[in-house]
Amino acid sequence: MAKVSVTKKACTVNPLKMSQPVGGALAFMGIKDSMPLFHGSQGCTSFGLVLFVRHFKEAIPLQTTAMSEVATVLGGYENVEQAIVNISNKQKARLIGICSTGVTETKGDDVDAYIKLVRQQHPELDDVKLVYVSTPDFKDALQDGWDKTVAKVIEVLVKEPPADVARNPKKIVVLPGCHMTPGDLDELRDIIEAFGMEPYFLPDLAASLDGHIPDDFTPTTLGGISLEEIEELGDASYCVAIGEHMRRAAEALQKKTGLPYRLFDRLIGLLPNDAFISYISQISGKDVPTKFKRQRSQMVDAMLDAHFHIGGKKIAIGLEPDFLFDFGSFLVEMGCHLTAAVSTNNLPILERVPAESVLVGDLEDLETMAPGCDLLVTHAHGRQASERLHIPLFRISLPIFDRLGAAHITSVGYRGGRDLLFDLANMFIANMHVVKPDTWYPHVAEPGEAEHPAPPTSH
Questions:
Q1: Do the Cβ atoms of 194 and 276 come closer than 8 Å?
Q2: Each residue of 319-364: pLDDT tens digit?
Q3: Does the CA dihedral 428-433-434-439 come out positive or negative?
Q4: What is the DSSP letter of 139?
Q5: Max Cα distance, the chain (Å)
Q6: CB crowding 1-27: b at 16 or more within 10 Å, else e
Q7: How do 236-242 and 168-175 pair as beta strands?
Q8: What is the pTM of this model?
Q9: With 0-12 CB in 10 A as exposed, 13-18 as middle and 19+ as buried, what is 427?
Q10: Where is 172: in which H helix or E strand?
C-alpha cells in the first residue's frame, strides 16, 4: 500500500493536472449535437480551447458566457441567458452543457435557478437540453470534472424505464474513464461487437474526436452518442464502468434505471483484459473468438520479448489517479520500479498504486524526485523536465501537443497492450547508448596505451 502525501508548496510551479471544467467539457464532446459552455471569463475558455485544439488537432466546439468584472460581481444571469439563446439560434445545438469555473463558483451563481428562469422566459427553447455541472477549477482535477458530468448527464437525460421494461439482451452500456482515448474506445467496441453485443458508450469520443472529416461543417460536436440513445439507455441488460472514478456514474444509472453494473478499475495488461473478455464472453453466452486467443498469445510473446529491456527500470510517473494506478500497475507487472509517483488529487485509489509513496503535487515535484530514473511518464508538459534531467519522456494522457496521433494511442485490449509494450521497449533501446553531456565515462586503456585522465571540473 502506497503512502499518500500532499505537497506543502504555496503554489503550483509546473502544473500536472488539468482543471475540472476541462474534464466536463471533454465529456460533453462525446455527445452528438452538443455545445460545452464555460460559465466564466473568456480567458478560462480560451485556455481549454487551445488545449483541446493542440491535442486533438481538430476544430473544437466550446463557448463561454464571457463574464466581465461587473457581471461577476452583480451576477451572471444575463450572460447565461444570452449564451444559451445565441447557441440555440446560431449553432443549433440540441444539448448545451454548462460547466462552472472558479470565478462564478467564488461568486456563488445559482445556475440551476438561472436555467429555470431561461425556461420560463424562452419557451421556444423547450427542445434544447440544458445540463449544468458544478466544476470549480480551484479544486479537484480533470477526472473529477469528467465523472461529475457523466453522472449529471445520466441524472438529467436518461429516462426511467417502465417497471415491465423488456431489456435488450445484447445491449450493453459502457462508461469509459477520462483517461481512455478514442483509439481505446474503438478497440473496446471491436471486442464487444465480436461477441454479438451492441455497445453504447457514454461519452463516445471515438465517434466525435477520432480525427474523421465530416461531409459538412457543423458548429457543434462532430458525432458521439445521440440524445435519443442516452434517453433509452435504461433498456440495456448490462453496464460496464472503466476506472474507479466512473463508479458515481454507474451508480447513478443503476439508481435511475435499475441496471446493475460491473466496474473494471484496470484495463491495461494481461490479467485485466483476461477478466474483461471473460466477462463479455459470459454475458454474451459465446466462446472467445479465435482472433482474441491469437492476440493474447501475441501479447504474451511481446511481454517475453520486452521484459529484457523493461525489467528493472526505474520509472518516474505523473498521471491522474485512476490512470496512475492502471498504467503504474502494468509497469510494475513488467518488472519496473515506480521510484517517483505524482498525481493530481488525493483519492483512495492512490493507496493501491504499487509504489512506496505517491505525492499529490505538480511536475516540479516529479522533476525533483526523478533524478536517477530511466524513464519519465506523463503528458507533454513534462518535456522541459525531460530535457533538463536527460531522461526520455514517454508521452501519455492529455495533453500531447508536440506529437501527432494522440487520439489514436491505444493501450487497452491485447493489441493495445502489445503495442504499448513495444513502444516502451523501443524507447529504452533507442536511449540505451545516449551519453549524458555532464557524464564522464572512463576509458579502459589497451595494453601499452596511456590511461585517459578524467576531464577537469568546470567552474
A1: no
A2: 999 999 999 999 999 999 999 999 999 999 999 999 999 999 999 9
A3: positive
A4: S
A5: 96
A6: ebebeeeeeeeeebebbbbbbbbbbbb
A7: parallel
A8: 0.92
A9: middle
A10: strand 168-175
